[in-house]
C-alpha cells in the first residue's frame, strides 16, 4: 500500500492551489464544497495542519446567513462553465448560489480525532460556530416545513448531478428561456460520461431562476420548480448533525448541543418518509408531487452511515446489497444495475464513486455488517490500484469514468490505507 499512499499524496500536492484543493485541475478548477470535506479527511492521514486549512478556507467563503456554497471561485479559470459571472453571487469571494451535501462537520470530527491536541482544539473551537451556522441554515432553508429531510433545489446541490432520481422532478422545469451556452465539460471528457444536453438545460434554467431571486434562499425553497427531498443529503446531514453534536459536547457547548439534538430528533422522526415500501428501499421524493423516485441508487445505502437502525428496513437494504453484488464486480454502483437506465460509465447512472463507498462502508462497519463493509472497502481499493485515481469507475469492469488524478479519490485511498 506504500505506493498507493505516496501516489495519493502526490495527487493532493499537485491539486493544491494554496489552502484549498481543486477536485481535478482541468475539469473542476475551483474549490468544491463536499470535495474539500473529503480532501480534509485524506489530508488528516498525514498532514493534520493542512486538513484544518482545507476546511477553514472553505468556510472563509461562508455567507452571512450560514450558507456555504458548492463552488468557491478563488481564482479565474476559463476551463469551467458556468463560471462566476453566470452565478452572479455578488459576494467576495465569488461563489455559486447553491450548496452541496454537508460532509464538513463529519470531516472536522475525523480531522480532530486524528490529532486531538490543544493547538488543533483552538482551530476546532474557531470553526465550530461556522459549522453550526451552516447546519442551522440547512434546518431553516432546506427543511422549512420541519419534515426532517433535506429539500434540494438543484441536481448539482445533491452532488449526484444526473441521477435518474431527478428525471421526473426535472420535467417540471421550463427550459425554453435558457438560451445558447457552451459547455466546457464535454471539451475535456467523452460526452458518454457526462450529463445530456436536456439535463444541462435544466441545470442552467435553475441557476437562472436562483439568480433572478438574488439568491434569496427562503424564496427559492418556496418557489423553485425543482424541490426534491434527497435521500443522499438527508442521510449525510443526519450523520453530520450527530458528528457536530459530538464536537459540541466535547467543547462544552450546551445550548448548541441541545439545538443539534432537536435537529437529530426531527430527522429521526421524519426521514421514514423517504422509505419506499413498495420497492423496499430508501429513495428521494418529489416535494411538489409527493412521488417516490422508485430508484435504488448508491444513496439508498447511506442509512447505516446516518445512524438509522431499523431491523426491517436494514434487512431489506442488505438484500439489495446482496442482489447487486451478484450482478456487478465492484460495489456500489450509483444506479441499480438491473434498472433499464443503468449505464456503466455515465456519471451518476451507474459508475462507482469512492467517496460514496467510503460513507457506505463506514456506515456498514459501524452497524456491524462487517462482510459487506469489507467488500465495499476492498472493491474501492482494488479499483484505485487497478485503474488509477479516477473520478468514478465502471462497476462492471472497473474501467475509468470521468477525470483522472482526482483529489477525493486520492483522499479516500489515504483514509482507507
Ligand atoms: C459539474 O459541473 O459537473 C459539477 O458537478 C457541478 O457541481
Describe this structure in words.
With 417 residues, this protein is mostly helical. Strands 1-2-3 form a three-stranded antiparallel sheet. Helix 2 (33-43) packs antiparallel against helix 3, helix 3 (48-60) runs parallel beside helix 6 (118-141) and helix 12 (231-251) runs antiparallel to helix 13 (254-270). The longest helix has 24 residues, at 118-141. It has helices at 2-14, 33-43, 48-60, 84-87, 104-114, 118-141, 155-158, 167-170, 185-188, 197-212, 217-223, 231-251, 254-270, 311-325, 354-366, 370-387, 407-415; strands at residues 31-32, 71-73, 94-95, 151-152, 228-229, 275-276, 281-282, 285-286, 392-393, 400-401. It is globular, with a radius of gyration of 20 Å. It contains 17 helices and ten strands. The mean pLDDT is 98. Strand 9 (392-393) and strand 10 form a beta hairpin. Bound molecules: (2R)-2,3-dihydroxypropanoic acid. The site of (2R)-2,3-dihydroxypropanoic acid has 4 residues, from loops.
Question: Concise description?
Answer:
By secondary structure, the chain is mostly helical. Helices cover 49% and strands 5% of the residues. A three-stranded antiparallel beta sheet has the order 1-2-3. Strands 4-5-8 form a three-stranded antiparallel beta sheet. Strands 6-7 form a two-stranded antiparallel sheet.
**Secondary-structure-derived class:** mainly alpha
Count of DSSP-assigned helices: 17
Number of strands: 10
Strand order, largest beta sheet: 1-2-3
Low-confidence stretches: none
Please indicate the percent range of residues in DSSP E strands (runs of 2 or more).
Answer: 5-15%
Biggest pleated sheet: 3 strands, antiparallel
Apparent shape: globular
Distance between the termini: 7 Å
The radius of gyration is 20 Å
Q: Into which percent range does the helicity of residues fall?
A: 40-55%
Series of secondary-structure elements, N-terminal to C-terminal: HEHHEHEHHEHHHHHEHHEEEHHHEEH
What small-molecule ligands were found?
Answer: (2R)-2,3-dihydroxypropanoic acid
- Roughly what is the average pLDDT, rounded to an integer? 98
